[in-house]
Amino acid sequence: xxxxxxxxxxxxxxxxxxxxxxxxxxxxxxxxxxxxGNVAHARIADLDAxxxxxxxxxxVWKQVPALERYNVMRKAANLVRxxxxxxxxxxTMEQGKPIGEAMGETMFGADIIDWFAEEARxxxxxxIPARMGGVTQMVVKEPVGPVAxxxxxxxxxxxxxxxxxxxxxxxxxxxxxxxxxxxxSCAALFRAFxxxxxxxxxxxxxxxxxxxxxxxxIPHKTIRKVTFTGSTAVGKQLAAMAGEHMKRVTMELGGHSxxxxxxxxxxxxxxxxxxxxxxxNAGQVCVSPTRFLVHEKHYKRFVEGFTEFAANLxxxxxxxxxxxxGPLAHDRRVDAIEGFVxxxxxxxxxxxxxxxxxxxxGYFFEPTVMTDVPMDARIMNEEPFGPVAPISSFxxxxxxxxxxxxxxxxxxxxxxxxxxxxxxxxxxxxxxGMVSINHHGLGLIETPFGGVKDSGYGSEGGSEAIDAYLNTxxxxxxxx
Length: 480
What we know:
Elements: E1 10-12, E2 15-17, E3 24-29, E4 34-40, H1 44-61, H2 66-82, H3 84-95, H4 99-120, E5 126-128, E6 135-143, E7 147-150, H5 158-170, E8 174-177, H6 183-195, E9 203-206, H7 210-217, E10 225-229, H8 232-244, E11 248-252, E12 257-261, H9 267-278, E13 289-295, H10 296-311, H11 331-346, E14 350-353, E15 368-371, E16 388-394, H12 397-404, E17 412-416, H13 420-429, E18 434-437, E19 456-457, E20 470-478
Parallel strand pairs: 7-8, 7-10, 8-9, 10-11, 12-13, 12-17, 13-16, 15-16, 17-18
Antiparallel strand pairs: 1-2, 3-4, 5-6, 6-20, 11-19, 14-15
Helix pairs in contact: 2-4, 2-5, 2-6, 3-4, 3-6, 4-5, 9-10
């Protein structure tokens, strides 16, 4: 495994290139706060070049048979696997997550490419029986066109690969605005596709000021589809912009996921799974459990177990395999988490463990557990996106369901129970795009991935994921 970190260029029309204006942005290692490289900063001239390339690339790629698209994508997946050590090291250096998590994300990214490669061969149409003789009525699927995609820093491979693979599998071209904080691992993903033999212009990668890029790409006549992963506030702005120009949209937005531990739950199973998933990627996960609602029977044991786990979790530089939680990705997250904790404590919350920045170098924050958190605390209403666990007790099924569904978010929800009746009831009652009961089973590529309410719409997983990149065309023909 190499510890070298590369400078990252743009990829436009089959070439890795500096920005036209020569601008760059520094990339920091969040474990040290020190610059480790830079990333090319795109401006309008670079976007124009990418748009021209995507339009030309689409004209070529949409004509390529599905089997050939499949073969290129399978090669790209294997290249990701071959380069996984290097990619994972870059990801940990730029994003902070433990090296084991970075390796898992990279290898899973290859599996996602394989899945979409298979889906490329299964974009089936159908024949509709006609009302009269001599008429054929067909439905066919066609690529929607050039795609503008926007992906975040928390999963540099996982978020980009779903959009990249879906577009390429369907026969689209794509311009992806990658994360400036974590550019190198995202670029390594693109390099695998390019090296696998994609025609020039099919995949294009840019970095820069998010608002500048989105405000230019989304209204542009070349772009026919917009896909975004990020905060609800930004997602609403981009969806409105896309709607004004009648662009197809997929939005995977924020969440504030309830995790309910019922009276008949196996509390030890709940503790084991929920602690691991709360502090994965330092809590910077859109489907992270974020509000823990525990029946009063198990409340004391759950708080004790969660606090013990958090207090003893090894935190440090993700390049050391002994560390199980790395730093937050940048200084803005440290400020945000400090704000959530201080607000809750000021309103009466009790700190069981953690609650402050860890050390004086790097963006580390202590794994934190809070109880007695009032409902008007910010952390009970805004997505925390960090290693903080507020735990509350309940006694009544209807009341806990009301609390679980109280917010406008609806991405993920979790429950623990040994009762089939309760499992069925809570599965139906949750207002959420994804529900996981007695385990953490979300985010698998073969299953739907998406939210409801303010958490967005559309799916980036399962058999329907490729549909977002396809138009449905009806063709009816009478015999001559």
